[in-house]
Protein backbone atom coordinates (compact mmCIF):
# COMPACT_ATOMS: atom_id res chain seq x y z
CA UNK A 1 0.00 0.00 0.00
CA UNK A 2 1.38 3.40 -0.96
CA UNK A 3 1.82 6.06 1.66
CA UNK A 4 1.36 9.73 0.83
CA UNK A 5 2.54 12.78 2.81
CA UNK A 6 0.29 15.81 2.35
CA UNK A 7 1.76 19.14 3.47
CA UNK A 8 -0.34 21.64 5.38
CA UNK A 9 0.46 25.36 5.71
CA UNK A 10 -1.62 28.06 7.37
CA UNK A 11 -4.15 28.80 4.61
CA UNK A 12 -3.98 25.42 2.86
CA UNK A 13 -7.54 24.34 2.07
CA UNK A 14 -7.26 21.30 -0.21
CA UNK A 15 -5.42 19.06 2.26
CA UNK A 16 -8.54 17.10 3.25
CA UNK A 17 -9.74 16.76 -0.37
CA UNK A 18 -6.31 15.41 -1.27
CA UNK A 19 -6.38 13.01 1.69
CA UNK A 20 -9.87 11.82 0.66
CA UNK A 21 -8.70 11.35 -2.94
CA UNK A 22 -5.64 9.23 -2.20
CA UNK A 23 -7.46 7.17 0.43
CA UNK A 24 -10.25 6.51 -2.06
CA UNK A 25 -7.56 5.21 -4.41
CA UNK A 26 -6.35 2.80 -1.71
CA UNK A 27 -3.42 4.72 -0.20
CA UNK A 28 -2.68 5.68 3.36
CA UNK A 29 -1.93 9.34 4.08
CA UNK A 30 -0.32 11.55 6.69
CA UNK A 31 -0.96 15.27 6.87
CA UNK A 32 2.32 17.02 7.72
CA UNK A 33 2.17 20.42 9.40
CA UNK A 34 4.64 22.89 7.85
CA UNK A 35 6.51 23.38 11.15
CA UNK A 36 7.63 19.75 11.15
CA UNK A 37 11.15 19.05 9.98
CA UNK A 38 10.73 15.31 9.36
CA UNK A 39 8.57 13.45 6.88
CA UNK A 40 6.92 10.14 7.81
CA UNK A 41 9.11 7.12 7.02
CA UNK A 42 8.72 5.14 3.80
CA UNK A 43 6.53 7.58 1.91
CA UNK A 44 5.96 7.12 -1.83
CA UNK A 45 4.85 10.65 -2.70
CA UNK A 46 4.64 14.16 -1.23
CA UNK A 47 1.69 16.30 -2.25
CA UNK A 48 1.79 20.07 -1.82
CA UNK A 49 -1.94 20.75 -1.96
CA UNK A 50 -3.94 23.78 -3.05
CA UNK A 51 -5.14 26.71 -1.01
CA UNK A 52 -3.82 30.09 -0.02
CA UNK A 53 -0.71 29.47 2.04
CA UNK A 54 0.03 32.57 4.14
CA UNK A 55 -2.94 34.31 2.53
CA UNK A 56 -0.99 34.60 -0.75
CA UNK A 57 0.89 37.49 0.92
CA UNK A 58 3.86 38.91 -1.02
CA UNK A 59 3.29 36.44 -3.89
CA UNK A 60 1.41 33.16 -4.04
CA UNK A 61 3.68 30.52 -2.52
CA UNK A 62 6.50 32.95 -1.71
CA UNK A 63 6.42 32.63 2.06
CA UNK A 64 5.58 28.91 2.26
CA UNK A 65 8.88 28.10 0.60
CA UNK A 66 10.70 29.02 3.83
CA UNK A 67 8.62 26.79 6.09
CA UNK A 68 10.75 24.36 8.15
CA UNK A 69 9.44 21.24 6.35
CA UNK A 70 10.55 22.53 2.94
CA UNK A 71 14.25 21.75 3.44
CA UNK A 72 13.28 18.10 3.94
CA UNK A 73 11.01 18.25 0.89
CA UNK A 74 13.84 19.67 -1.24
CA UNK A 75 16.16 16.87 -0.11
CA UNK A 76 13.50 14.26 -0.80
CA UNK A 77 12.90 15.68 -4.29
CA UNK A 78 16.61 16.02 -5.10
CA UNK A 79 17.06 12.35 -4.16
CA UNK A 80 14.49 11.41 -6.80
CA UNK A 81 11.41 11.25 -4.53
CA UNK A 82 8.11 12.04 -6.21
CA UNK A 83 6.47 15.39 -5.44
CA UNK A 84 3.15 16.70 -6.78
CA UNK A 85 2.14 20.35 -6.42
CA UNK A 86 -1.48 21.21 -7.12
CA UNK A 87 -2.52 24.86 -7.67
CA UNK A 88 -0.95 26.74 -4.73
CA UNK A 89 1.37 23.72 -4.43
CA UNK A 90 2.50 24.35 -8.02
CA UNK A 91 3.13 28.01 -7.14
CA UNK A 92 5.20 26.96 -4.11
CA UNK A 93 7.30 24.53 -6.19
CA UNK A 94 8.07 27.22 -8.81
CA UNK A 95 8.94 29.71 -6.05
CA UNK A 96 11.33 27.11 -4.64
CA UNK A 97 12.92 26.62 -8.03
CA UNK A 98 12.05 22.91 -8.00
CA UNK A 99 10.00 23.57 -11.12
CA UNK A 100 10.87 26.06 -13.88
CA UNK A 101 8.89 29.25 -14.59
CA UNK A 102 6.57 31.33 -12.44
CA UNK A 103 2.83 31.95 -12.03
CA UNK A 104 1.47 35.47 -12.51
CA UNK A 105 -1.95 37.04 -12.06
CA UNK A 106 -4.53 35.73 -14.59
CA UNK A 107 -4.68 37.83 -17.72
CA UNK A 108 -8.30 38.86 -17.03
CA UNK A 109 -7.47 39.50 -13.33
CA UNK A 110 -10.44 37.38 -12.24
CA UNK A 111 -10.37 34.36 -9.98
CA UNK A 112 -11.46 31.55 -12.34
CA UNK A 113 -13.38 28.63 -10.84
CA UNK A 114 -14.93 26.13 -13.29
CA UNK A 115 -14.50 22.82 -15.05
CA UNK A 116 -11.86 23.11 -17.77
CA UNK A 117 -10.88 20.78 -20.57
CA UNK A 118 -7.15 20.02 -20.79
CA UNK A 119 -5.05 18.29 -23.39
CA UNK A 120 -2.44 15.74 -22.33
CA UNK A 121 0.75 16.98 -24.01
CA UNK A 122 3.20 14.35 -22.77
CA UNK A 123 2.58 11.08 -20.97
CA UNK A 124 6.20 9.92 -20.83
CA UNK A 125 6.20 10.44 -17.05
CA UNK A 126 4.80 8.74 -13.95
CA UNK A 127 2.04 11.27 -13.41
CA UNK A 128 0.29 10.98 -16.78
CA UNK A 129 1.37 7.45 -17.73
CA UNK A 130 -2.22 6.21 -17.49
CA UNK A 131 -3.50 8.95 -19.80
CA UNK A 132 -3.21 8.91 -23.58
CA UNK A 133 -1.16 11.52 -25.40
CA UNK A 134 -3.51 14.17 -26.85
CA UNK A 135 -6.35 12.88 -24.67
CA UNK A 136 -8.72 15.61 -23.45
CA UNK A 137 -9.47 15.57 -19.72
CA UNK A 138 -12.13 17.51 -17.81
CA UNK A 139 -10.74 18.84 -14.52
CA UNK A 140 -11.76 21.76 -12.28
CA UNK A 141 -9.58 24.86 -12.04
CA UNK A 142 -9.79 27.47 -9.26
CA UNK A 143 -7.11 30.15 -9.22
CA UNK A 144 -6.25 33.84 -9.58
CA UNK A 145 -2.53 33.38 -10.23
CA UNK A 146 -2.32 30.67 -12.87
CA UNK A 147 -0.77 32.63 -15.71
CA UNK A 148 2.33 30.54 -16.35
CA UNK A 149 5.40 32.47 -17.50
CA UNK A 150 8.71 31.12 -18.72
CA UNK A 151 11.32 32.77 -20.92
CA UNK A 152 11.90 31.55 -24.44
CA UNK A 153 15.14 29.69 -23.81
CA UNK A 154 13.74 27.80 -20.84
CA UNK A 155 10.53 27.14 -22.76
CA UNK A 156 12.43 25.51 -25.61
CA UNK A 157 14.20 23.28 -23.12
CA UNK A 158 10.86 22.40 -21.50
CA UNK A 159 9.40 21.41 -24.84
CA UNK A 160 12.46 19.44 -25.98
CA UNK A 161 12.56 17.43 -22.73
CA UNK A 162 8.82 16.65 -22.85
CA UNK A 163 8.31 18.52 -19.57
CA UNK A 164 5.02 20.14 -20.62
CA UNK A 165 2.29 17.99 -19.07
CA UNK A 166 -1.00 19.70 -19.90
CA UNK A 167 -2.42 22.60 -21.89
CA UNK A 168 -5.76 24.36 -21.46
CA UNK A 169 -7.78 23.35 -24.51
CA UNK A 170 -11.24 23.21 -26.02
CA UNK A 171 -13.08 19.88 -26.04
CA UNK A 172 -11.21 18.88 -29.21
CA UNK A 173 -7.77 19.50 -27.73
CA UNK A 174 -7.02 22.84 -29.43
CA UNK A 175 -5.13 25.13 -27.03
CA UNK A 176 -7.22 28.05 -25.74
CA UNK A 177 -6.43 31.13 -23.65
CA UNK A 178 -7.82 30.65 -20.14
CA UNK A 179 -5.49 32.68 -17.93
CA UNK A 180 -2.76 33.96 -20.26
CA UNK A 181 -0.26 31.13 -19.73
CA UNK A 182 2.61 30.83 -22.23
CA UNK A 183 1.25 28.47 -24.95
CA UNK A 184 -1.69 27.66 -22.63
CA UNK A 185 0.47 25.57 -20.29
CA UNK A 186 -1.49 24.16 -17.32
CA UNK A 187 1.17 21.86 -15.84
CA UNK A 188 4.87 21.00 -16.09
CA UNK A 189 7.43 18.67 -14.57
CA UNK A 190 11.15 18.94 -13.87
CA UNK A 191 13.80 17.49 -16.15
CA UNK A 192 14.14 14.30 -14.09
CA UNK A 193 10.35 13.84 -14.19
CA UNK A 194 9.89 13.26 -10.48
CA UNK A 195 8.47 16.69 -9.57
CA UNK A 196 5.09 17.65 -11.04
CA UNK A 197 3.05 20.84 -10.84
CA UNK A 198 -0.30 21.82 -12.26
CA UNK A 199 -2.97 24.47 -11.67
CA UNK A 200 -6.03 22.18 -12.20
CA UNK A 201 -7.35 20.05 -9.33
CA UNK A 202 -7.40 16.31 -10.17
CA UNK A 203 -8.32 15.53 -6.54
CA UNK A 204 -11.68 17.23 -7.17
CA UNK A 205 -12.50 15.03 -10.17
CA UNK A 206 -12.88 11.48 -8.85
CA UNK A 207 -16.61 10.89 -9.20
CA UNK A 208 -18.96 11.41 -12.14
CA UNK A 209 -21.67 12.57 -9.75
CA UNK A 210 -19.41 15.57 -9.01
CA UNK A 211 -18.81 16.31 -12.69
CA UNK A 212 -15.84 14.19 -13.76
CA UNK A 213 -13.73 11.22 -12.79
CA UNK A 214 -10.81 12.10 -15.05
CA UNK A 215 -8.69 12.88 -11.99
CA UNK A 216 -8.54 9.17 -11.11
CA UNK A 217 -6.21 8.16 -13.94
CA UNK A 218 -3.97 11.15 -13.23
CA UNK A 219 -3.47 10.40 -9.55
CA UNK A 220 -3.29 6.63 -10.19
CA UNK A 221 -0.20 7.20 -12.33
CA UNK A 222 1.65 8.47 -9.27
CA UNK A 223 0.81 5.44 -7.15
CA UNK A 224 1.15 2.72 -9.80
CA UNK B 1 18.26 53.64 7.98
CA UNK B 2 15.29 52.89 5.76
CA UNK B 3 15.42 50.70 2.67
CA UNK B 4 12.78 51.16 0.00
CA UNK B 5 12.46 48.18 -2.33
CA UNK B 6 10.44 48.70 -5.50
CA UNK B 7 9.43 45.56 -7.38
CA UNK B 8 8.04 45.48 -10.89
CA UNK B 9 7.41 42.78 -13.48
CA UNK B 10 10.33 42.67 -15.91
CA UNK B 11 10.15 44.55 -19.17
CA UNK B 12 8.63 42.20 -21.69
CA UNK B 13 6.63 40.27 -19.09
CA UNK B 14 2.98 41.20 -19.60
CA UNK B 15 1.56 43.06 -16.59
CA UNK B 16 -2.19 42.30 -16.52
CA UNK B 17 -2.87 44.66 -13.60
CA UNK B 18 -1.03 47.56 -15.24
CA UNK B 19 -2.99 46.87 -18.40
CA UNK B 20 -6.32 46.92 -16.55
CA UNK B 21 -5.43 50.26 -14.91
CA UNK B 22 -4.48 51.62 -18.32
CA UNK B 23 -7.85 50.55 -19.74
CA UNK B 24 -9.65 52.19 -16.82
CA UNK B 25 -7.75 55.45 -17.31
CA UNK B 26 -8.66 55.40 -21.01
CA UNK B 27 -12.29 54.77 -20.16
CA UNK B 28 -12.22 57.78 -17.80
CA UNK B 29 -10.93 59.92 -20.66
CA UNK B 30 -7.51 60.61 -19.16
CA UNK B 31 -5.42 61.28 -22.20
CA UNK B 32 -1.75 60.85 -22.94
CA UNK B 33 -1.08 57.73 -20.85
CA UNK B 34 1.26 55.61 -22.94
CA UNK B 35 1.90 52.73 -20.58
CA UNK B 36 1.08 51.67 -17.01
CA UNK B 37 3.15 49.25 -14.94
CA UNK B 38 2.01 48.18 -11.51
CA UNK B 39 4.46 47.09 -8.85
CA UNK B 40 4.84 46.95 -5.13
CA UNK B 41 6.92 48.82 -2.60
CA UNK B 42 8.35 47.27 0.54
CA UNK B 43 9.76 49.62 3.17
CA UNK B 44 12.26 48.15 5.65
CA UNK B 45 13.45 49.90 8.79
CA UNK B 46 17.03 48.75 9.41
CA UNK B 47 19.22 49.00 12.48
CA UNK B 48 22.35 49.15 10.31
CA UNK B 49 24.11 52.50 9.89
CA UNK B 50 26.51 51.28 7.21
CA UNK B 51 25.09 51.92 3.76
CA UNK B 52 27.27 49.37 2.01
CA UNK B 53 26.33 46.57 4.43
CA UNK B 54 22.68 47.51 4.27
CA UNK B 55 22.72 47.49 0.46
CA UNK B 56 24.24 44.00 0.43
CA UNK B 57 21.81 42.67 3.01
CA UNK B 58 18.72 44.07 1.30
CA UNK B 59 19.92 42.77 -2.08
CA UNK B 60 20.11 39.33 -0.53
CA UNK B 61 16.56 39.73 0.84
CA UNK B 62 15.31 40.83 -2.56
CA UNK B 63 16.95 37.92 -4.35
CA UNK B 64 15.80 35.32 -1.84
CA UNK B 65 12.25 36.35 -1.07
CA UNK B 66 11.09 39.90 -1.78
CA UNK B 67 11.18 39.50 -5.56
CA UNK B 68 10.77 36.47 -7.81
CA UNK B 69 13.59 37.17 -10.24
CA UNK B 70 12.11 34.80 -12.83
CA UNK B 71 9.49 37.47 -13.56
CA UNK B 72 10.39 40.53 -11.48
CA UNK B 73 13.07 43.23 -11.28
CA UNK B 74 13.73 45.30 -8.18
CA UNK B 75 15.42 48.53 -7.17
CA UNK B 76 16.74 49.42 -3.73
CA UNK B 77 16.85 52.93 -2.35
CA UNK B 78 18.50 53.61 1.00
CA UNK B 79 17.52 56.76 2.91
Sheet bearing the most strands of chain A, described? 9 strands, mixed
Total domain modules of chain B? 1
What is the fold named in CATH at topology level of chain A?
Rossmann fold
CATH class descriptor of chain B:
Alpha Beta
Radius of gyration of chain A, taken over Cα atoms and rounded to an integer in Å:
16 Å
Relative helix content of chain B: 25-40%
Give the full name of the CATH homologous superfamily of chain B: Phosphoribosylformylglycinamidine synthase subunit PurS
In spatial order, strands of the major sheet of chain A run: 2-1-3-4-11-10-9-6-7
Keywords:
heterodimer, A: 224 residues, alpha/beta, Rossmann fold, two-stranded antiparallel sheet, 5 helices, B: 79 residues, alpha+beta, Mth169, Chain: A, three-stranded antiparallel β-sheet, 3 strands, elongated
Your description of this structure?
The complex is a heterodimer of chains A (224) and B (79). With 224 residues, chain A is of the alpha/beta class. Chain A has a single domain, classed as 3-Layer(aba) Sandwich (Rossmann fold). Chain A has five helices and eleven strands, in the order E-H-E-E-H-E-H-E-E-E-E-H-E-E-E-H. In chain A, the strands form two sheets. In chain A, strands 2-1-3-4-11-10-9-6-7 form a nine-stranded mixed β-sheet, with helices on both faces. A two-stranded antiparallel sheet of chain A has the order 5-8. Chain B is 35% helix and 28% strand. Chain B is elongated, with a radius of gyration of 16 Å. Chain B is of the alpha+beta class. The longest helix of chain B is centred in the C-terminal third of the chain and has 16 residues, at 51-66. The chains are: A alpha/beta (224), B alpha+beta (79).
Amino acid sequence: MKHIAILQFPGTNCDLDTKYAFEKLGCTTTIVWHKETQLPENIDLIVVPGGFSYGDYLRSGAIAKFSPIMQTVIEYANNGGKVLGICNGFQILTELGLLPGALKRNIGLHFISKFQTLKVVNNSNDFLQKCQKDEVLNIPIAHADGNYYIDEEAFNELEANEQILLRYSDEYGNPIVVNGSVTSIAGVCNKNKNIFGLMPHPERALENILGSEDGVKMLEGLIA
Amino acid sequence: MTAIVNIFLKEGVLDPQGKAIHHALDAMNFEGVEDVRMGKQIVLKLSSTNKEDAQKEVEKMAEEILANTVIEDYTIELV
